Amino acid sequence: MKVKVVSILEDNYMYLIIDEQNRGAVAVDPAVPHRLLQIVNREGVSLVAVLTTHHHWDHARGNEDLLKEIPGLRVYGGDDRIKGLTDKVTNCQELKFNSINVRCLFTPCHTAGHMCYFVWEDDCTDSPAVFTGDTLFIGGCGKFFEGTAEQMHHNLTKVLGTLPEDTKVFCGHEYTKRNLKFALMVEPENQKVKEMLSWAKARDDDDKPTVPSTLLEEFEYNPFLRLSNEAVQKFTGKTDPIEVLRVLRKEKDNFKKPKDRVPAHAMMALEWGLLQS
Ligand SMILES: [Zn+2]
To answer: Is the Cα dihedral 186, 187, 188, 191 positive or negative?
Structure first.
């Protein structure tokens, strides 16, 4: 199973999952359709489905154009607000596209209809993958726009946190460097955070993506998955995991985003990104 990682817009990712045996492909959050179609053509595959994590513009804006371009295309998602939705899915529903298997994981909080997608391939020894949209980021988690700390706690610990540890994590945005700066403030002594941050800085300098990570790695440096860790509890002044998570997210909301290195023309998109993700 091959996953093409495509950087789009200000800091979004869209993905193309390729079934190499059958030359079929499934896209995740293809918000820049003409670029997706270029890749589909270059790879010589046929796009059969779109998986949409949530209805926000920077994830779902490409669906209607793709439906016009590809007759018979199916667009899956868990929220009626998703543009171009053809098939509404529910928690634990499984989809199959030749040898590509998808389990839909309902993860409401960032939006009320957010879905993550756990993907694996038949007869393949590759690690499975999870497409987490704006629920779990590398080193962080999404804003609670339409949900509660209780819901995000369930999403992170019971839904995503119980997947196999070697699962590759493909998230919706490149926020890794900023997330790890926050993680370092939360856990100044965590060596894994330090190592990951310097690696993420080098990737950023080379203009390369930091996805995917693995769930096992996330458990080592992502404070939102380390709610029972002593340093994380100390930072938040709480011990109950849901309260720890609530305070962490609030502190992250107030954590200043560096404004350097951002060209003026990107500021509007950036402000929009701040609101939506
Ligand atoms: Zn979003």
So the answer is: negative
Q: What are phi and psi of 231, to 5 degrees?
A: -65, -35
The CA 39 to ligand 1 mean position distance, Å, reads 24
Taking all residues of the chain, what is their mean pLDDT, rounded to a whole number? 94
The DSSP code for 163 is S
* Known catalytic membership, residue 134: yes
Q: pLDDT-based confidence at 4, cuts 50/70/90? A: very high
Judged against a pLDDT cut of 60, whether residue 270 lies above it is answered with: no
Residue 22's contacts (CB-CB under 8 Å, 6 or more residues apart) are 98, 99
Instruction: Determine the straight-line distance between the first and last CA of the chain, rounded to whole angstroms.
Output: 28
What average pLDDT does this structure show over 151-179?
98
Domains of the chain with CATH codes: 2-261 (3.60.15.10)
110 as an active site residue: the answer is yes
Inter-residue contact 128 to 168 (CB < 8 Å) = yes
Scanning 61-148, the segments in alpha helix (DSSP H) are 63-69
pLDDT at 1: 87
Q: How far is the CA of 182 from the centre of ligand 1 (A)?
A: 20
Task: Please tell me the predicted confidence (pLDDT) of residue 258.
Answer: 60
Q: Has 54 been annotated as catalytic?
A: yes
Catalytic residue among 19, 29, 55, 56: 56
157: DSSP letter: I
Would you place residue 221 in the very low, low, confident or very high pLDDT band (cuts 50, 70, 90)?
very high
